[in-house]
Design brief:
2 copies of one chain form a homodimer.
Chain A: E1 4-11, H1 22-37, E2 44-48, H2 52-55, H3 61-68, E3 75-80, H4 85-99, E4 105-111, H5 118-126, H6 141-156, H7 164-174, H8 188-193, E5 196-198, E6 201-202, E7 212-220, E8 230-239, H9 254-267, E9 276-278, H10 284-293, H11 302-307, H12 324-328, H13 335-348, E10 361-368, E11 373-381
Helix pairs in contact in A: 4-13
Chain lengths: ~375, ~375
């Protein structure tokens, strides 16, 4: 498997873009990535998207975007793994370049979520869960996460305010990120007094949806002249049962454990070597569970990393350095590509006051469903 | 790029399976392919599907099926390219195995289309077209193909009955295939007197939808002990504009031309070397256009192959030898995998009275939208 490098990145601001179509949002990020890479053409296009069939009545986003951005005749395809679609598309593009069958790929994650009524989007998001055995019972996607958070608090003795640092850190870091949806510093008081969504998840535990797209151009490493050269050191994916109730231990993200372990082996690193970690904080509980399953904290101790101030850009395990899903925003099928793009920004040293000093190894972890599909990627600056 | 072989295949009968769920239909084909391959586990799962998010309110089919068929913890993902989803999933799985990152992949195409009302499915199928510029005008998917057929008849001087041989051949061949949806021999009279769907497309120009799934297990060629060894000699994908009206020449399938040309080069063959061709006869007009763009007929002369009796299993260019989309049925996201499976059956010599004598090289071509995404695969028996 030949080595692959990331040559260019692009992203759009996450927002309610009522003045821009799915086409325009995706095209903006895709063309920005190609411009950043200094290329006018690529061999192939991989699009990560979850809800366009429902929210935009549009399928076949591969051909759709190849047409729009002028990649005429080129191969193009869509990859879907619920909220893990972005990283799943990245991995598919990676396999194509690594196999030697194509010499370059543009990978984009895109979502246009705000043209439909809220209840339609809630239903669309629920397609990530098990239609027959979960959604049929009336449980929403946030409801499933609320059950996990409640159980975690009960099991390990944490109170709701103990999750505040994840949200506070994400909001603080987003202040520096012009592409973030929310620019609002928050305190423990903001966190604790916000509206309830699904007990115990309140507004500041939950990430906001939004319209957005992020993209990257990848090529074989030996063809990447640009310095510093950002390498894809590892890529791994794993699954768990789609229904949460089928898991022996719902508080352990099995697929995060398996995919991160594979990724560490492939990259030849340990969690200690990871300088920055863009995790999937769709809800604060998911941040805690990701840290635990990926080897950064003991079982039930993920929240302690926040309380001990270890997760800031100056801490031992910096997470959500550009705002995370919580404050940058969570355009579901695009999120995985925002994470990849943000790790590249860190490794290039472009993150201003939230720059992790001397970051050389970064990890991105993207989650589909309540932990059913998890992809872990490790990027590094060539040493 | 290392060589890949197809170790096992499986499929379900295409029908209105009101007694079986999406899970059960997909699982049946997947487990049959693993049993045929003689394996109990694979490293990765690739699922081709188009309309489950709408028709079954279910996304994340990778994890969904990995869970159901017992591929616990394994990587799994869904690939979508409208009616080209099956072959797109096959190509994604192929890249993963070819790259060396995984040692085996199960690829399945699956669709459960008959649980929703007809108008819902018509709307779901229209997501293959351009939502902003085609569907917005009220045109349905069959409507777009009707415009193409009308123009073709006008441009090249054919009458409707000239398309009959495609439908007659498909129906005759399906008689031998227990997995086909329709088992009914037809004549020119049946064809000409059937109900109109969208002028000039009538009932026997159009393929029936259905519930179905088809699957294959692929491994590196050097690990495939089974004889005869079926190799994937070529895989290529290309796109065209998503909206038909954007094409300079709507009667030429640019993406079929590009992908078949690439495939011929990769396999080191010409159209003359292809013993059997499973083409995408969603409508009879598509059969004609595929034959022309893929080098089997001159422009405007695709229908002549049918009239000259060249497309039967005993002809010069055997097509739809198991019934094609027309009579085997067209469970949209599954069709590409049925085509792959049927080529394997031909190369193994398992096709009874529709067996192409001494078939050693077979081609499958899967189309998404009205020609927007086209994938061409060439399989061969190791010589």
């Amino acid at each position: 498997m030949r080595k692959v490098a990331i040559l260019g990145i692009g992203q759009t601001k996450i927002d309610e873009h009522w003045d821009k179509s799915l086409r325009e949002i995706g095209g903006e990020a895709a063309l920005a990535a190609m411009q950043d890479a200094g290329v006018e053409k690529v061999d192939s296009l991989f699009v990560g998207n979850m809800i366009a069939p429902i929210a935009n009545e549009q399928n076949q986003l591969g051909a759709f975007f190849a047409d729009w951005i002028g990649l005429w005749k080129q191969e193009a395809v869509k990859v879907e793994a619920a909220c893990g679609s972005g990283a799943a598309a990245f991995r598919a593009g990676l396999m194509a370049v690594a196999s030697g069958d194509v010499e370059s790929a543009l990978v984009m994650g895109v979502e246009k979520m705000t043209d439909k009524a809220g209840h339609d989007i809630t239903a669309a998001l629920a397609t990530a869960a098990d239609a027959d055995y979960e959604v049929e019972q009336g449980v929403s996607f946030v409801g499933l996460n609320a059950l996990l958070m409640r159980r975690y608090m009960h099991e390990f003795g944490w109170k709701h305010a103990d999750f505040a640092p994840f949200s506070i850190n994400a909001h603080a870091n987003a202040m520096e990120n012009p592409f973030a949806r929310l620019h609002q510093r928050i305190t423990v008081e903001t966190f604790e007094t916000s509206s309830m969504v699904a007990t115990p998840i309140n507004l500041f535990d939950a990430s906001p949806i939004g319209d957005g797209a992020a993209a990257a151009v990848i090529v074989p490493a030996e063809k990447a002249a640009r310095r510093p050269r950002i390498l894809v050191s590892a890529s791994a994916a794993a699954t768990d049962t789609i229904a949460v109730h089928s898991r022996q231990d719902p508080l352990f993200l099995q697929a995060a454990y398996v995919s991160s372990k594979k990724a560490y082996q492939m990259a030849g690193v340990t969690p200690d070597d990871v300088d920055v970690f863009e995790l999937h904080d769709a809800f604060t509980i998911m941040a805690a569970l990701s840290l635990e399953a990926s080897g950064f904290a003991e079982r039930g101790q993920g929240v302690r990393l926040g309380l001990d101030n270890e997760i800031s850009p100056q801490g031992r395990v910096p997470v959500c350095t550009r705002g995370g899903l919580k404050a940058r925003g969570h355009p579901v099928g695009a999120t995985g590509m925002y994470q990849i793009v943000e790790i590249v920004q860190q490794l290039r040293g472009e993150c201003g006051s939230t720059q992790v000093d001397g970051a050389r190894i970064g990890m991105a972890q993207n989650i589909g469903g309540s932990g059913a599909t998890i992809l872990t990627h490790i990027l590094s600056v060539e040493s």
